[in-house]
Amino acid sequence: MVNTESEITLLVDGAPRRLTVDNRVTLLDALRDRLGVTSPKKGCDHGQCGACTVLLDGRRVTTCLTFAVACDGAEVTTSAGLAVDGRLHPLHQAFLDHDGFQCGYCTPGQICSAAGVLDEARAGWPSAVTADVRTTPSLGEEEIRERMSGNLCRCGAYVNIVAAISEVAGKGEAGP
Amino acid sequence: MIPFDYRRADDVDSAVATVTGNPAAAFLGGGTNLVDHMKLGIAGPELLVDVTHLPFDRVEELPDGGLRIGANVRNSDLAAHPLVRERYPALAQAVLAGASGQLRNLATTGGNLLQRTRCVYFQDVTTPCNKRTPGEGCAALHGYTRYHAVLGASRHCVAVHPSDLAVALTALDAVVRVRRADGERTVRASALHRLPGAHPERDTVLEHGELITAVDLPPLPLAANSRYRKVRDRASYAFALVSVAAALDVADGRVRDVRLALGGVAHKPWHATLAEHVLRGGPTTVDAFNAAADAELAEAQPLPDNGFKLKLARNLIVSVLRALAGEDTR
Asked: What range(s) does the 2Fe-2S ferredoxin-type domain occupy (chain A) (predicted)?
């Protein structure tokens, strides 16, 4: 039998959400349009801008190139969900302190991506600018720029975004 | 997008049987290319069989010292794996040179190999494309060809394959393991993708319903001295204009063995066998490296906007080989 809809469960920012989705609905559209979770933003809708980035089962991903049905049972953490009991995540505070945004539209994606970058660096992952992939790189500005290259900011706040992430990386603050 | 059915596969045989028996079915991996194609109207499967929960999610050491990379190993995990970084650094570098951190967390090893060209005319359903609709014609031939092929193209298609991973696997003698309805077969990575000829709609030699389950890397000591370098229009997060994957074994100033493959130049990762032949046994001099590059590129046929790729490929080959020979050229 052909079924073009599916019943799925997502754990979104700590809350279990059950919904029936058309299989064509992306995770991004399910979050925003069906669940009212508007922290991730729709920018390009083709995986090129990073505005829709969330942490899916703890890893940063774009949500516009993933069907919601394929995420059944997964845990989604948005930028809003990184704030616990109304307390800002260190990345939130650093973006405020360093003016890491202008219009703010790309910011939730930037924040989630940065959280992923910190986790990946802690796990010792190399990047395309790591001179020797056998070594464990430290998260300097060049590494941050490369690792954040999947998040575009049309206002051009990159310099301050890098400064904000550098500060949190330097403090060794824990991620989510 | 047309409505479609979705099934999460929990065993490989039934997944393969399901897709084999249904011409309108497709396997779904990380989705970073297929989902986009469904949005753009390039692909319209009526059934998606999600294979990401099949147990092909590990990098295992083989008894002969090689590695088996499960088809579901995410690009990010592949690039971060200690044995990959230690024994096949060009492979880790190639994966890290592709896409973004978010996409590498989704994209799978098998899916990376099966991603399709980023030719803008292929991706724009309002322009003719023989790869998308056989017999329709090729808009690129009289279009903007900066990103197109200089080797092995045909009058039907001048698109290039976009994968960085595939270029490294070609250089490193990798073997692709494929499950099909009547068993299993293997395909050399260098023979997985096709030249376009009269059938650009076929990117690879795989048949409908065949599923990549793993990629095997043979024990290859010279791969410890390997490198991937990619030149593109911006510093990060862009497809290659030209890329080079190479591995080099030098003794007493002469090339004992070498592997060389090019990306961004052809419909498939280009195994530079002519250059390898010229290099083997020869000196590790700039002249020798130039001669090898020239031998490989002698048959190249640039298009109006991409003649620069020949000099770029030549310089890149020489630069990477010099670096592998122990001269710092960066």
From this structure: 6-82
Query: So where are chain A's domains?
Result: 5-82, 90-171
Q: Which of A2, A6, A70 sits opposite B31 (nearest CB)?
A: A70
Of B31, B80, B236, the CB nearest to A66: B31
User: A86 CA to chain B: closest CA distance, Å?
Assistant: 27
Q: How far is C-alpha B291 from the geometric centre of its chain's CA atoms?
A: 25
Do the domains A90-171 and A5-82 match in fold? no
Distance from C-alpha of A57 to C-alpha of B84, rounded to nearest angstrom: 24
Determine whether the interchain pair A23/B6 forms a contact, defined as Cβ–Cβ distance below 8 Å: yes
CB B193 within 8 A of CB B269: yes
Q: Which residues of B touch A127 (CB under 8 A)?
A: 96
A5-82 maps to CATH 3.10.20.310:
no
Domains of chain B, CATH where assigned: 224-324 (3.30.390.50)
Which residues of chain A make contact with B89, given a CB cutoff of 8 A?
Answer: 132-134
Tokens of A154: 């049309």
Q: Tell whether A133 lies on the interface with B, counting CB pairs under 8 A.
A: yes
Please give the full DSSP string across A65-108, using - where no structure is assigned: TSBGGGGTT-EEE-HHHHSBTTBPPHHHHHHHHTT--SS-TTHH
Q: Which of B5, B6, B104 to mutate to test the interface with A (most CBs of A within 10 A)?
A: B6
Q: How far apart are CA A47 and CA A41, in angstroms?
A: 12
- Residue-by-residue pLDDT tens, chain B, 330 positions: 999 999 999 999 999 999 999 999 999 999 999 999 999 999 999 999 999 999 999 999 999 999 999 999 999 999 999 999 999 999 999 999 999 999 999 999 999 999 999 999 999 999 999 999 999 999 999 999 999 999 999 999 999 999 999 999 999 999 999 999 999 999 999 999 999 999 999 999 999 999 999 999 999 999 999 999 999 999 999 999 999 999 999 999 999 999 999 999 999 999 999 999 999 999 999 999 999 999 999 999 999 999 999 999 999 999 999 999 997 554
- CATH number of the domain at A90-171, please? 1.10.150.120
